[in-house]
Amino acid sequence: MRHAVSRRALLTTTALLGAEAVLAQDAAPAPPRFGTAAPRRTMPTICVHSGNLAKVPYFQLGDIAAQLGFDGVDLTVMIGGHVDPRVTNVDLIRAFEAIRGSGLEVPMIATNITGPQDQTAFPVLYLTGRSQVPLFRLGYWPYGTNPIQQRLAQARQDLIQLLPLAQRSTITGMVHNRAGGFIGQALWDTQQVISTIDPRWMGYCYDPAEATAEGGLGGWESGLRLALPRLKALVLQDFYWAKAGDTWTMTKCPLGEGMVDWEKFFTLVAGSGFTGPISIYQQYVVQDSLGAMTRDLEFARRQVQRAWTAQSTR
């Protein structure tokens, strides 16, 4: 056991030192490989968010996702996720290899990183980017009680400071529009934060359910149109409002059973030329989780096939 621990420590130290040396000597960064008009793609890649399979170890993720019919995996790299960022150098590469060994892609990871002050940002982003994974979803900035403009300025400063690492790692950051008091919930606020950052390195991970909850009848569409030039990935969820006593609650549900206008949404996205990854989240409780995932995947694939086929014939 002592030998195994020593070997793990050695691997971690060696990887970090090697990465720092390469980072200091790298040439100009290459452009990202996914997002709007991604090369050599005519259709998006539909992925399972690995949080849906939280009880499955990462070395089995690829096999199960492939059996369900997914094209790839959106891997959680966070405390409580499939890869603990504190031991990235040991587990992250193995997770990528295991998923790809099942014939699937890993076009994106989900993190809680919000700036370079996170001590795990360097190993996570560098090893992920150098493993040919082009996208990472950022964490969240709660608005809290601070003045809005002050909070937006803080988030903008965090991302500007994170930018050199993203560039050298050849990986693009994405802000997810999470509803409920977080920067990005309205999409207009994200634009204020990232508008001065090169769109090759910072963009949107657009979620139509969260946008519909915050934007109502037309706000989600305005937000989507704003995001399209910087759109890097999609998160798919659905929801409806449920009332318990005097409180209305955003209740997640299977795709197609809630309030999202899927036909209009996918028509707009397909028309933009987007061919990046789509990650399907499952944040609702059912007895047959795998069966529900399959139904969500089938729904998403039908919508994608319809919208992108219609676009190609125009």
Q: Characteristics of this structure?
A:
single chain, 314 residues, alpha/beta, TIM Barrel, eight-stranded parallel beta barrel, two-stranded antiparallel ribbon, 9 helices, 10 strands, globular, disordered N terminus
Question: Which structural category do the helix and sheet elements fall into?
Answer: alpha/beta
Q: Given the C-alpha coordinates, what overall shape results? A: globular
Number of separate helices: 9
Per DSSP E runs of 2 or more residues, the count of β-strands stands at 10
CATH fold category name: TIM Barrel
With strands numbered from the N-terminus, the spatial order across the biggest sheet is 1-2-3-4-5-6-7-10
> What amount of the residues lies in strands?
15-25%
Question: What is the average of the pLDDT values?
Answer: 88
- Corresponding CATH architecture: Alpha-Beta Barrel
Report the span from N to C terminus.
Answer: 63 Å
- Parts with pLDDT < 50 across at least 5 consecutive residues: 1-29, 31-38
Whole-number radius of gyration? 19 Å
Q: Report helical residue fraction.
A: 40-55%
Helices and strands, in order, run as: HEHEHEHEHEHEHEEEHEH
Number of domains: 1
Report the top-level CATH class.
Alpha Beta
Largest sheet: 8 strands, parallel, barrel
Q: Please name the fourth-level CATH homologous superfamily.
A: Divalent-metal-dependent TIM barrel enzymes
